[in-house]
Write a structure and sequence with these properties.
Layout (H helix, E strand, L loop, with lengths): L3 E4 L4 E2 L5 E2 L1 H19 L4 E2 L1 H8 L3 H9 L5 E2 L3 E3 H11 L6 E6 L3 H8 L8 E8 L8 E2 L2 E5 L3 H8 L3 E4 L3 H14 L3 E4 L12 E4 L2 H12 L12
């Protein structure tokens, strides 16, 4: 699933004061995943060439991506796997716990609450809300679905920083407004609609339909080269 940022917040900046593109930031978790696999196999060092082969990326691109954040490798030796894991985790703030609230206790909301591959360590969904009286009071794992009117209080009491929207398009802006009023810093929107938000709030979009249509377009092109979504 590709996520696109359409508005909110300025670009990330490197230590050298250079703007870091969205593509670079999206590749960091992919690097971390491969490094984690190497760590499990007790691999101590890895070269950009080896990472490039595993990810089907240009090694020069990998070196350039990592150079935005510091000098992590040694020429002729490569990258220390454990050290690079530690550094990328820090860049992605995986050394911090960030609390998340979700609005929309439907099938997608349930699936996201049950999904623990990336959320189990540093991101935790700690509150779920819905406007449907039939869903209020039901449970998703250990979380009780709360009425939407309690959102602001819960966000502020728990210091929740991220909101996830999994409601129909017609309801998404209202939910976003509630999140913004409550003080969240970022929103992940699964509804197929562009949201209005102040510049200080960062919004990412996860639209399955858009990605499927894009995939269908490229599948119809003869001779299309293999393309990694992390690019």
């Amino acid at each position: 699933m590709a996520v696109r940022r359409l508005q909110g917040g300025g670009p990330a900046m490197s230590k050298q004061g250079k703007a870091i593109s969205e593509a670079v930031v999206r590749r960091l978790p992919v690097y971390l995943q491969v490094l984690g696999e190497l760590h499990v196999r007790d691999v101590q060092t890895v070269s950009s060439q080896e990472l490039g082969l595993k990810l089907e990326l240009n090694p020069a691109q990998i070196r350039k991506d990592l150079a935005y954040f510091g000098e992590f490798g040694r020429k002729g030796v490569g990258y220390d796997v454990n050290y690079l894991i530690e550094k990328i985790r820090g860049i992605l703030k995986l050394d911090q716990v960030m609390l998340v609230a979700l609005v929309g206790a439907g099938n997608l909301g349930h699936a996201l609450c049950n999904y623990s591959t990336y959320l189990k360590d540093n991101m935790k969904i700690t509150a779920v809300f819905d406007a449907n009286p039939a869903k209020i009071g039901t449970r998703i794992n250990s979380l009780e679905v709360q009425p939407i009117d309690r959102l602001q209080q819960a966000v502020q009491e728990q210091d929740i920083q991220i909101g996830i929207i999994t409601v129909p398009a017609a309801e998404a802006q209202n939910v976003a407004d509630r999140f913004i009023a409550a003080g969240v810093k970022g929103i992940l929107n699964f509804a197929p609609v562009v949201l209005k938000a102040p510049e200080k709030v960062r919004i990412h979009y996860a639209d399955f339909t858009t990605q499927l249509l894009s995939l269908a377009y490229y599948m119809d092109k003869e001779g299309t080269e293999h393309e990694q979504m992390v690019d």
